[in-house]
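(Structure overview)
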Amino acid sequence: MSDIEIAQQAKLEPIQQIAEKVGLTDDEIELYGKYKAKVNLPLKNAHKTKEKMVLVTAVNPTPAGEGKSTVTIGLGDALKEIGKNVMICLREPSLGPVMGIKGGATGGGYSQVVPMEDINLHFTGDMHALTSANNTLAALIDNHIYQGNELHIDQRRIIWKRVLDINDRALRHTVIGLGGPLQGIPREDGFDITVASELMAILCLATDLKDLKRRIGNIVIGYNFDKEPVTVDQLGVTDAITLLLKDAIKPNLVQTIEHTPALVHGGPFANIAHGCNSLIATKTSLKLADYTITEAGFGADLGAEKFLDIVCPKLGKTPNAIVLVATCRALKMNGGVAKKDLEEENVAAVEKGYANLQRHINNLRQYNVPVVVAVNRFSTDTPAELDKVVELCAADGAKAVVSNGWAEGSAGVLDLAREVVAACDETSDFKPLYDPNESIEDKVQTLVTKIYGGKDVAYSAKAKSQIKKFEKLGWDKMPICMAKTPYSFSDNEKLLGAPKDFTIHIREFVPKLGAGFLVALTGNVLTMPGLPKVPAANGMTLSDDGKINGLY
C-alpha cells in the first residue's frame, strides 16, 4: 500500500485523548476539528520531566530524501512501546516539496503522523498566516514609499522580498509598480519561498508572543539613501505584522498512526534557512515528555549544524543523543551510482559512499554528544548492503542499527530505541563549534573546514563590502546560517561523497536581525526553488466523494 492509503486506513484517537497522554488539559488545547489542536501557552500546570532530547539528522540525501521523518516517528513510537513518556517534534510541510519532487513531511509507511492529508496541505493555516504577514509587510513598505517616503527608503536597496509557499521560478526576479503613477513606484523585486522567509525563522526561534513582536520589530527591510538600515519598528507596523501570527505561534498537536503525541510546528528549509521546528514546540515537549525526539532538515552539514550552533543556545538545552540516518541508496549515490540504478545491489558502491557517512559521524562527534547511526531500510536494500553499513560503522567505533519503521512501524525500530535510550544515559559534554563573537570570516572558515571538509572561502566583492559594513553596524556577533546545496558538502551539488580541500564561494550575505543570524548565500543556491519536469502534482487525484490519492 502507498503512504496515503496506510494513513487513510489508520484509526485515529480524538485529539483530546492524545493531549491527556502528556498531561494537557482541555483549557490548554484549542481544537481544530477532531484530530488537530493548537496548544495554548504558557502551560498552566507545573510539568516536571527528565527532559531527554534526541536530535535526528542524516547523511547528504538523494533528491527524494532518506526517510529522516520516518525514522523520527518510528523512534518515537518505539520509545512509547518500551514504556517511555515521549513526544515527537517535526516541521510543518511546505507545498513546494509536496507538489514538487520530494513529497510531504509526515513520514512514511507505518511510521507517519496523521491526519496525513491535512498536515501536508493546509493544516491549521500557519503557512498561510506567514505568507500573509510577509506580504502585508511588503505592501506596507511600497505604500510608505508611494505616500511620500518619510523614512527616505532607497527602493534600490530594499532587501525584504515577497513570498509564496510553492516553487515558482518565474517569480525569482520581478519588476513591480509598472503602469503609471497610480500603480506605485517601479522597482526590482523578487519572491522567496515562504519557508525561507525571515518571518518563518523568527516564528521558529521566538520564545513567546512578546519575543515574537520584538524580533519582528528588529527586521531590517532595507536601507535609506544614506545607506542606513531601516527596520519594521521604524515603519511603525510591528504590531500589525505580529497580530497576523498570534495563532500561528501556537504549536500544533497531532498523533502518529500508533497514537504517539506529536507537535508539528514551523518549517524552515535547512538548505536556505535554519531547518528546525519551532523552539516553542521543542520547549513545550521538554516540559511534557521525558523524551523529546526532534529532527533537523537535510544532511547533518546543514540542519544538524544549525540546530546545534543556532537553536541550542536559544533553547538552553542540548541533545542527549544524536541519531544519524543513513540509507544504502544514499551511500550508493555518494559512491558514484546513477539515480536510475540505486535499486540494484552494489555493495562496493555502499563501501565507497561510506566516506560521506563517516565524515558526518566525525563531524557530530566534535560536539561531544553520543551518536547512533540508524540505517533506514528500503524495500530494495539487500542484506549484504545493510550488513556492510553496520560493519563499516562498527570499524569506526560507531553503533549502527537497521531501522524498518516504514514497513513495520514501532516493531521495526525497537532495537534503535533501546540504543538511543542507552546513548541518552551516557555522559555528554556539549561543545559548540564556534563562538558567535568571533569574526564573520572566522565563523565561516570554521564551518567550511570543520564541517564541510573544505579548505578556502572565496568572497565576492559584494560579500567583502557587506562584512565591513556589518562590522561597523555591530551585526558581526551573530551565528552564521549557511545557504548551500544539500546534496554535497561543497557548494557544487555534483561533487558527491566526501570531497576535500575545495573552496566555498560566498556571493552575498543577508542580515536577519529579527531571527538573530546572518545568512551566507553560497554558490548558486536559490531561495525560490523550481518545480521538476514532472511535478508530484501531476499524479494527484481527488475523487467525487473527496478522497485524495497520489499524495506522498
Notes: The mean pLDDT is 96. The chain has three domains: 3-125+248-424, 126-243, 440-522. The CA atoms of residues 378 and 545 lie 33 Å apart. The two ends are 11 Å apart (CA to CA).
